[in-house]
Here is the input.
Amino acid sequence: MKTRYRKVVRDLTHDYSKNLLLVLAITIGIWGIGSILGGYGVIKREMRDNYMGTVPASATIELEDSISVSLIDSVKQLPGIKEAERHATVLARMKVGDRWNPLLLFVIDDFATKRTNKINHISGAVTPAEGTMLAERTAYMVMNAKEGDELIIKAPHGEPKKIKLTGTVQDAGLAPAWQEQTGYGYITLSTLHWLGEPQSFDQLRILVTGNQHSAQYITNKATVIANWLKTNGHPIHEIQVPPPGKHPHQSQMNAVMTIFIIFAFMILVLGAILVAESMATLMVKQVRQIGIMKTIGAGSFQIIRLYGLMMLIICVLALLIGIPLSQLTATAFYKQIAGLLNLEINNKDIPFSVPLIQIGSGIIIPLLAAAIPVIRGSRIPVRVALDNYGVSKNRPVAGSWLLKLSRIAGSSEIFMLSIRNIFRQRARLMLTVGLLAAGGAMFMTALNVSEAWNKDLQKIYEQRLFDMEVRLQSAVHADTVVNAIKEIPGVRIAEGWQYASTSFVKENNYEVTRTYPDKGHGSFTLQALPVPTRLLSTTIEEGQWLTATGANDVVLNQSARALSPAVKIGDPVALLVNGHTTLWRVIGFSKDYGMGAGAYVSLNAFTDQLHTTGKINMIKIAYANRSKAYAIQKNKEVESLLERENIAVSASIPVWLLKNAIAGHMKVLVNTLLSMAVMMGIVGILGLMSAMSMSILERTREIGVMRAIGATPNKIRRLIAGEGFLVGLISIFIAFLLSLLLSFYMGRMIGGMAFRTPLSLTLSFPAIIIWVLIIITGAYFATFFPARRANKITTREALAYE
Amino acid sequence: MNQQSTSLIQLSHISKTFPLAAGSFQALKDIDLEISKGQLVAITGKSGSGKSTLLNIMSGIDKPTAGNVLINGIRVDKLTESELAAWRGKNIGVVFQFFQLLPTLTILENVMLPMDFCNSYPRKERRDRALALLSLVDIKDQASKLPSALSGGQQQRAAIARALANDPPVLIADEPTGNLDSHTGAAIMELFAGLVKAGKTVIIVTHEKDFAGYFGSTVSLLDGAIVH
Here is the structure.
């Protein structure tokens, strides 16, 4: 080995603690980026493969009547149709403990030959016999049951019946049941009838030929089929065209992953700043050696190559640790996300591009970061290098702002010295402050966003002044039932509403929705409520809330507005409800939390238009106490009453259940943000430690002089700690301002995904306090070791320090 | 000084001014100096007289503000930093007061390093040459040790061996005995004298009058000008 390279190896091993810090900084970056990209790569591939593996129907056409086998055969013969199947979805209820929870029943024509929206058989029966049911694997948790158990379920028009769970399937097209707080069951038509439900197959699922990736193309094709069906005497209720080829959570997942990737790259960039700073420290120590090497014949390029090689070795070490580590965390990460998306990971291979990106970024970014101090160090003239005493000889001149600042009345000598010292190397100060501020900003942002998330989640309660929503199977006369519920002790308010799935009327007069087969994702609901209502306190963003009892006014929420962005206040809109066109005038736009697309109208106006005066199909109830335990108790009493009154309930949704369902969607995102924030904090503190070490190292001789003229070790320690605290304090201020900006953008992104509206800009005071404590503790530890080292050197050694 | 046409080092009208916050400081004022091959020359003067600056200009470590530096037929003041490094490696051996050995390399490796940088000897020969030079300065038995394990005198001997690594015609030493006791200092001076006998030109900055007997000639500086 060439002698010069031996120097590289010896320098690396000689100052191993400092170099380990460098390895650690780069490793954190490589690890972060590898974990996120690796996890993302697997999830992206598996999400596509899983979802496309189910052969999702291009469109579902809901008919008003039942679909016969001969009709299916006829549809299959139509041009542009690749496949057609009949299907039914029924929202039933299941008894879990002493509560009735929602259960989505998928009625399948032929389990063995199913060709669209396929399900993967996992265990037990492949086709459930009459009176039995298959369960989606994620549903057992919400069912509080396991395969082989019996479950009491109740179809909307039937009596409660015990049904045996004889098999387990995976339905990759559905979000996990625990996330939706809904059970998923798969039955035959005969079982549906056995449950007392007279309904037959009413959904026609089609696969089109041609451009299967265009929603417009599919909609056109589906409309042609719908026209054909209508002409042949089969009235159409709705056409559902979910976004083609996209998993119900695809866009959320892309947005979440974008945030993660941005954070991961930020960690790498912070690591790079730390590398630049640590490399600058290294160069400070090496300046005189560079002078010596140049004296004995080394050229600048040789010096650059020498330290470049040193950096390369550090990068390679970091890669050797970071890549395997990231593969482990990427695996844990994709497993977590797969659970969140109900995916089966069939191919566990992390894409080959991920380690390549890690190698590229883990070498290029640190080398670029180190290039400045290395090139600067290599170009120092020999005389300057040999005369090097570390700290710049430029001192603040008398009368400068710095002197004035450090002479604040009553400030101690230690404070004066600390404040002047930290400004001696201003470029380094900026780098350290920048590093800490970036770490702090992201830390505070993560906590701000987390708090904003919880706060906005709480708005689900604040906007909904009711505790329970009961959806009835069919419309009933309002007075009797509502008054009976009001009589239940603890019921504060009960109101009768109407609800219906709706869509903006298009030219063809069919309802065309973006609803997925779970009937939840992509749906648009119209709610008709008594004006004024005491059970809803929505936020009006533009225009006004409903005030006129009989007026045909409508208020659209943000998700509904997004479906028809051109609509303005005062515009007339036509909404299709149960095949009838209803006409409204837009008077306001609201901001709802925890609800899909929604339109609010007056109950009187609604029933007038649909000729259902005096009837309701939804009851909203507020209890005297909003606690979950109280709500559970009261919900049971309400359900018992409805059962006694023989009123068929299609779903009862306690507000706490809704909140849990929404919280479940974003839990992983918020937790991952927090863990990334911790990583940022670590990198920030490492940066401060590095900067303080460098600062002390440069001033070894100066510290010797201070000791020689009487400074005690305690004073030296306080001086060094004071410098660390001051740097930390400056960074906190900048971090705070930066976090406001970041929280705004991050909140907009996450809020947009979850609520279609930005999260409220929230300042988390615990975040500020925790970060201040981290900085104080971090500054103490960051200065403890350099201070101890400075005090360990004898005064004589310090004075003679080269 | 020596006015022969065989001058190895020729300095003409050398001035050096340092810019300072309080104004500029002229360290050297119109210096003319010629040094012949095979001489042991002392440069003396009080602290701040400009002796180290003069030495730095002769070794190419620093450049003059004005004047010409001609060494072995090369206009040193015209060379770029990288040209200077290569030139210095082969033509000038520098010995410092504080030895300036690289702390993480052994004594042997310190001596081999200039040959590596200048690629001056075949790789296989470097080790033997370095050992021969360490033998010359009488510390061959310390070859595998780190500098910190050696005494001041031994470190200075190692520094001299390193300065000789590329067999330069000129050795420049800035107070090489300043950090050594008188006995060790005298031994180092003996070493320099021996090198001069072997044909090297040695220029030493010193203010130790005890070693006057070793010097063939002495240049005295006062306030940046030659007074003797």
Residues 1-53+262-388 of chain A form one domain. The radius of gyration of chain A is 34 Å. Residues 390-398 of chain A have pLDDT under 50 and may be disordered.
